[in-house]
Amino acid sequence: EAQVTQNPRYLITVTGKKLTVTCSQNMNHEYMSWYRQDPGLGLRQIYYSMNVEVTDKGDVPEGYKVSRKEKRNFPLILESPSPNQTSLYFCASSLNIYQPQHFGDGTRLSIL
Amino acid sequence: SQQGEEDPQALSIQEGENATMNCSYKTSINNLQWYRQNSGRGLVHLILIRSNEREKHSGRLRVTLDTSKKSSSLLITASRAADTASYFCATVQVNQGGKLIFGQGTELSVKP
Fold first, then answer.
1. Which terminus of chain B has a lower count of CB atoms within 10 Å, N or C?
2. How many CB pairs under 8 A join A and B?
3. Which of B9, B32, B86, B100 to mutate to test the interface with A (most CBs of A within 10 A)?
4. What is the mean pLDDT of residues A8-28?
5. Contact (CB, 8 A) for A62 and A104
6. What is the pLDDT of residues A54-69, one digit of tens each?
7. Strands A107-111, A102-103: parallel, antiparallel or unpaired by DSSP?
């Protein structure tokens, strides 16, 4: 089944404790992206990757890192999480930027 | 402010009625996409309209695009309670690399 898989689905952690949210897709998609969703602000793009080893900043990249060492995986790294990064995070992938995105089920992060 | 501003922010209708949602954007686009999100879940792609298209249909969905006004509308005809969800437009901007800009969404409630 074609899908984008994010883990974990839920995480409560404390300020400053490094965490990684994994994202994997099985559709051989070139384009992958991370979004955060906050009430009243819609979805905002954090980082995106057009292809392996190519990543670029979205609209809200501060406090986040990503890597794209292989096509299927695009982890989101919070080196030193802070409470303002408490949010619902989505990973998505598509054949390319012009094609519709396939979204994961989301990761709800709470940073205390 | 973010591109892809949508209105209304919330819409409540009775089953069988039509629902219309609007999306405005600021810069030139390659295409505009509409997505649906059930509460707390990942977004699901509904329909994509290219910048050289004016109207597109898919089942009970009708999307229009007016590039001169930088706006799009999504019409859901003969709505059902199962259409209750949030609806987002997203624009792929020309000459902006891989950025995908989402609107803040319209929350649709269809009452049986």
1. N
2. 70
3. B100
4. 97
5. no
6. 999 998 999 999 999 9
7. unpaired
